[in-house]
């Protein structure tokens, strides 16, 4: 299954119609609360903030512009979109069931949460185990909007379904959306502010590298993907690191390139990750490249300026970004 993970990441984006990133809150997502509603009862889930709890019921307008009435705070959610583990974890709302649960073993950004939550494995987001989902009896199901036409109506027979976008390069909008779903808007804003501060502070620490160039390369079996990872290159919302002049189109998520093309770019620093999400596979790919003369001709390789990043950076979620930023700082400050 791990060999298909990058395909899932890229296809999720393609199903939304564009590889280009977007910023701000996801269009069409909104929530309407009923002021006179009785606040939901407290549960074992940590409170979102020191303020009052959110009002219920509330109506949430999802990615497909469907109005979903939430009578109370969801307590038993099923997540059928592995890229959104991060948003739920940050809000302290672990799902009761999810697809691609094996991601908790593969991405370092998710591993700390594996023991924290008991999450039932319901298979793949492209073909979830409906029978097992019936047994779990979730009170809400969250799925990728691009797959709703495939089996969304079948899921509606189990519980209310909320569709979400791929939110490529829009982790803030996605986190705010989940804040609305779970009544944790203040918690969402707090986490956004925390990560924004981390990025801004880290950017200042990297001021001495303003004259250097960087590349983010996802490695596969004889594959090289040059990524335009926003938190690395974006001047306004990221670290603002420089890509080589002949880097790939920054208006896309990235492009597959040849090793010779990478040599032509020849960035001063290279960050590498495995395209399939496995740190063990990355070690193998790098081992195979040790005897490659073109690879060894790269300035970053010759000068010891090549560093590994967790593959979660490809999904562009808040935990992956946080880990990526911290990893870059740790390596460049040695």
Descriptive overview:
This protein has 334 residues and is α/β, with parallel strands linked by helices. Helix content is 34%, strand content 17%. The chain has helices at 5-14, 85-90, 103-106, 130-136, 148-156, 171-181, 185-205, 230-233, 259-265, 279-289, 293-296, 299-302, 318-332, and strands at residues 30-33, 58-61, 67-70, 77-80, 97-98, 120-121, 123-124, 127-128, 140-144, 161-164, 214-220, 223-227, 254-257, 269-274, 306-308. Strand 4, helix 2 and strand 5 form a beta-alpha-beta unit. The two termini are 36 Å apart. The model is unreliable at 1-6, 9-28 and 34-52 (pLDDT under 50).
Summarize the structure.
With 334 residues, the chain is α/β, with parallel strands linked by helices. The chain has helices at 5-14, 85-90, 103-106, 130-136, 148-156, 171-181, 185-205, 230-233, 259-265, 279-289, 293-296, 299-302, 318-332, and strands spanning 30-33, 58-61, 67-70, 77-80, 97-98, 120-121, 123-124, 127-128, 140-144, 161-164, 214-220, 223-227, 254-257, 269-274, 306-308. The longest helix has 21 residues, at 185-205.
Oligomer: single chain
Estimate percent helicity: 25-40%
**Sequence of strands across the biggest β-sheet:** 6-5-4-9-10
Structural class, by secondary structure, is: alpha/beta
**What characteristic shape results from the CA principal axes?**
globular
Report the count of strand segments. Answer: 15
Unreliable runs, pLDDT <50, ≥5 residues? 1-6, 9-28, 34-52
End-to-end Cα distance, whole Å, is: 36 Å
**Residue-averaged pLDDT:** 86
Number of helices: 13
Helix and strand string, N-terminal first?
HEEEEHEHEEEHEHEHHEEHEHEHHHEH
Rg, please? 21 Å
For the largest beta-sheet, the strand count, sense and barrel status come to: 5 strands, parallel
- Beta content comes to 15-25%
């Amino acid at each position: 299954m791990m060999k298909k993970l990058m395909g899932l990441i890229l296809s999720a984006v393609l199903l939304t119609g564009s590889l280009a990133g977007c910023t701000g809150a996801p269009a069409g997502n909104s929530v309407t609360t009923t002021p006179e509603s009785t606040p939901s009862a407290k549960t074992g889930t940590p409170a979102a903030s020191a303020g009052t709890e959110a009002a219920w019921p509330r109506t949430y307008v999802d990615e497909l512009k469907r109005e979903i009435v939430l009578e109370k705070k969801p307590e038993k959610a099923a997540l059928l979109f592995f890229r959104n583990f991060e948003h739920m974890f940050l809000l302290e709302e672990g799902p009761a069931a999810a697809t691609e649960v094996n991601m908790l073993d593969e991405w370092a950004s998710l591993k700390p949460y594996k023991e924290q939550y008991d999450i039932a494995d319901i298979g793949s987001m492209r073909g979830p185990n409906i029978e097992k989902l019936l047994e779990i009896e979730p009170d809400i199901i969250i799925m990728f909007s691009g797959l709703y036409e495939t089996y969304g109506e079948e899921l509606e027979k189990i519980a209310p379904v909320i569709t979400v976008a791929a939110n490529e390069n829009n982790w803030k909008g996605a986190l705010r959306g989940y804040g609305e779903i779970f009544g944790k808007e203040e918690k969402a804003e707090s986490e956004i502010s925390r990560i924004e501060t981390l990025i801004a502070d880290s950017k200042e620490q990297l001021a001495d590298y303003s004259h250097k160039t960087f590349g983010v390369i996802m490695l596969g079996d004889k594959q090289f993907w040059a990524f335009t990872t926003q938190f690395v290159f974006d001047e306004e919302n990221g670290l603002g690191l420089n890509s080589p002049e002949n880097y790939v189109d920054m208006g896309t998520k990235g492009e597959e390139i040849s090793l010779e093309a990478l040599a032509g770019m020849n960035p001063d620093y290279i960050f590498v990750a495995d395209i399939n999400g496995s740190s063990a596979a990355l070690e193998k790919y790098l081992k195979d490249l040790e005897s490659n003369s073109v690879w060894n001709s790269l300035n970053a390789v010759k000068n010891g300026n090549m560093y590994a990043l967790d593959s979660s950076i490809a999904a562009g979620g808040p935990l992956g970004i946080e880990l990526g930023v911290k990893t870059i700082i740790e390596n460049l400050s040695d």
